[in-house]
Amino acid sequence: MSHIIKVSGLGKTYKSGFTALRDVNLDIQKGEIFALLGPNGAGKTTLISIICGISSPTSGQVTAHGFDIVKDYRLARSKIGLVPQELSTDAFESVWATVNFSRGLFGKAPNPEYIEQLLRQLSLWDKKNAQMRELSGGMKRRVMIAKALSHEPEILFLDEPTAGVDVELRRDMWEMVRGLREHGVTIILTTHYIEEAEEMADRIGVIRQGEILLVEEKQALMDKLGSKQLNLHLTSPLTEIPAALAEFNLQSELEGSFLRYSYDSRQNGDSVARLFRILSEQGIGIRDLNSSESSLEEIFVSLVHEETAK
Amino acid sequence: MNIYGIRAIYYFEMARTMRTLMQSIVSPVLSTSLYFIVFGTAIGSRMGTIDGVGYGAFIIPGLVMLALLSQSISNASFGIFFPKFSGTIYEVLSAPVSPLEIVLGYVGAAATKSVVLGILILITARVFVDYSIEHPVWMMAFLILTSITFSLFGFIIGIWADDFQKLQVIPLMVITPLTFLGGAFYSISMLPEPWQTLTLFNPVVYLISGFRWAFYGVADVNIAVSLGMTMVFLLTCMAAIWWIFRTGYRIRT
């Protein structure tokens, strides 16, 4: 896959002296869903704001679709749609007017059929004549998405898209985002909801204090950093763990009828197979078993803490 | 050029005017009409002529100018201030529109409203006061030029203001006094020295004088000087806006 956004050596220092971004380098691949994770104040929104033209960089360069965002801003911006974190809307405008306004602003000729289709897809058609102030928070969020898609962008930024949105709408949005990706739209989202990144993203970037800590394929990240647990329910309880199993550092619960083996997936190797072999040699029967692995949230928390400790 | 972008901003602003017709058009026409009734018809009928023009007719250019200046500033400043205040400015900043196109959209709409308002005030004034327009083309030129210039000035105020108070302070504390003291209700030749000379430092004098010349062929200062001063103010505002967009002052972090 070729990159659709290329961020090179991007830095942002505000007049106050606060540095929001430090030498950020990032490539976004065409057609992917990229999730940018980071704690509050990490620089996620600043990065998006610079790429979209809302904020100016102090140093570095960004290209979108091969166009420099400063020199060729018209061509670069025409490819980008942005759903900002804040629900900033014109309270007295109708849904229809505000979405058409966005399309015009981005230099596209009026296309009522496309806007109708968009509003229908986002379940907004019934509300097309409603003023923005009459809509619920969830509906406003949908309108923000419709505005961002009104000029048929190839790149869509979603800054905390499901903040304050109920579970049902969140699921709807995930579906919509997947649908957009199927139509070739590249999606970059920032989120606090790790499950959102886990559910949707192809790749994940972690940013902290203005620096990109890592960029990985989601599954590779989970495989690389995730720890796993193997839970064993025994046929007969053990009075004590045999010495032959000492190397596995097993935890015994339920008066010896349950054993938990925690291991690092990075060093998985054949340890599970060896554990089963020794259990068999010791005559320890297994009634049931299951395994679990770290969620992205646990990985993220451990990663950020690890970097803080450095 | 992003014609659709300019059109979107322009129609958005015009739609806002239509939604607030009472406040945007009816109210300034009504309040200016009160001046015509009180100073033009009631008091004016008992006053003599100034430079050969009846008092009721004499004050018309000044009153139209007063409404033009305050409404141009108010419309343009609110037009750009409110998106900053509500946060919707993000969309304009992230769109493929150039600073010139943004200004054309916002200032074009504000100036259009002012020109319409000026014409409506002139039509309303005819109901109360008998007046003539000696140079109608120049009258329209001054009307349009002043509307554009002060809409640009309003745009600058809208960018500069970071609260509603600042939005009001220049029109109320600077423009209105300058207009009242700029010969809206009198000829500056009626002032004693040193006030007559000091008044020439008031830029609004040149606007009112030029506009009045277009009506009655009489002016406090040379028409070329009036036109020149208006152009200087226009170019100053354009330079300030160019600087604002070049530096991102108060619009882009």
Automatic annotation (TrEMBL), chain A:
Keyword Signal: no
Keyword Ligase: no
Recorded GO MF terms: ATP binding; ATP hydrolysis activity
Keyword terms: ATP-binding, Nucleotide-binding, Transport
InterPro entries for the chain: AAA+_ATPase (IPR003593), ABC_transporter-like_ATP-bd (IPR003439), ABC_transporter-like_CS (IPR017871), ABC_transporter_ATP-binding (IPR050763), P-loop_NTPase (IPR027417)
Domain ABC transporter as annotated: residue spans: 5-234
Pfam families: ABC_tran (PF00005)
Protein name: ABC transporter ATP-binding protein
From TrEMBL, chain B:
Keywords (A to Z) from UniProt: Cell membrane, Membrane, Transmembrane, Transmembrane helix, Transport
Domain of life of the organism encoding this protein: Bacteria
Domain annotation ABC transmembrane type-2: ranges: 19-248
Transmembrane stretches, start-end: 20-43, 55-82, 102-125, 137-161, 167-186, 198-215, 221-245
One GO location term (cellular component): ATP-binding cassette (ABC) transporter complex
Pfam families: ABC2_membrane
Compartments it resides in: Cell inner membrane; Membrane
Membrane topology: Multi-pass membrane protein
GO terms, molecular function: ABC-type transporter activity
Similarity-based family: Belongs to the ABC-2 integral membrane protein family.
Protein name: Transport permease protein
Lineage, top ranks: Bacteria, Pseudomonadati, Pseudomonadota, Gammaproteobacteria, Oceanospirillales
